[in-house]
Design brief:
- This protein is α+β, with helices and mostly antiparallel strands.
- The chain has three domains: 49 residues, no CATH class; 72 residues, no CATH class; 75 residues, 2-Layer Sandwich (GCC-box Binding Domain), CATH 3.30.730.10.
- The protein has a four-stranded antiparallel sheet. It has a four-stranded antiparallel sheet with strand order 5-6-7-8, with no helix packed on it. Strands 11-12-13 form a three-stranded antiparallel sheet, covered by helices on one side.
- The chain is rod-shaped.
Length: 220
């Protein structure tokens, strides 16, 4: 009876044989191998001897350790795996600029715009959505370019409200996420004037800096 050589302990490239695995249905011998990267893989004995298989597969892939991609710095390969259909892929341990540790597959580290932890990704998506909606520094440009009153406005002038408790008109303006008041007035015209002056000061300069200008509208 033919005696097969024991490959346990032998090295083949980056692989060291640690044990014999179950043979194939046709009797081909297979071996459990540990790669220098830390992964284990079952390899056909014939492939080891011919030099066809010399690693767990990591040798085929670029080593990203130490690289800065987007907001992430790759620390090294982790012991975690992600699913890609029926196969599994080893994940990289990464540190985000915010300090969070996250785990990414190689194919998710190729785009600098989305290489970040989940928390930063959520903030990035929200920021993009606001930018697409015309927001700049907390102010929506499309809403301040044209000061035509909305359907909900009852005074006919945006930012001018009548307060029954004090029986006066109030002029307000919301800019960069903050609401500012410019006083209360007995006469409606004075409140309108205060609001218009505030628009010129705050909206006018802001729009000009963004290549836009404040549109005039006719009061009813």
């Amino acid at each position: 009876m033919r005696q097969w050589p024991d490959l346990t302990g032998q090295r083949f490239g980056m692989l060291v044989v640690t044990a014999q695995a179950e043979s194939t249905a046709t009797g081909q011998r297979r071996w459990v191998c540990r790669c220098d990267c830390g992964n284990e893989r079952i390899v056909m004995g014939s492939n080891l001897k011919r030099g066809t298989t010399v690693s767990c597969g990591c040798k085929r892939y670029k080593n990203l350790e130490g690289q800065k991609i987007g907001k992430l710095t790759v620390i090294g390969r982790s012991d975690k795996y992600g699913s890609r259909g029926k196969r599994k892929t080893q994940l990289w341990e990464c540190k985000c600029e915010c300090g969070a540790i996250t785990y990414k597959a190689t194919d998710t580290l190729t785009n600098p715009d989305i290489s970040m932890c989940q928390d930063c990704a959520n903030k990035y998506a929200a920021s993009k959505a606001r930018a697409n909606a015309g927001f700049k520094d907390g102010t929506q440009l499309t809403k301040i370019v044209d000061m035509t009153p909305t359907a909900a406005n009852t005074s006919g002038v945006r930012g001018v409200y009548y307060e029954k408790k004090i029986n006066k008109w109030r002029a307000r303006l919301r800019f960069k996420g903050k609401t500012m008041s410019f006083g209360t007035f007995t006469r409606f015209e004075d409140a309108v004037f205060a609001r218009k002056e505030a628009e010129k000061i705050y909206f006018g300069e802001f729009l000009e800096a963004n290549g836009l200008e404040l549109k005039e509208y006719n009061e009813e």
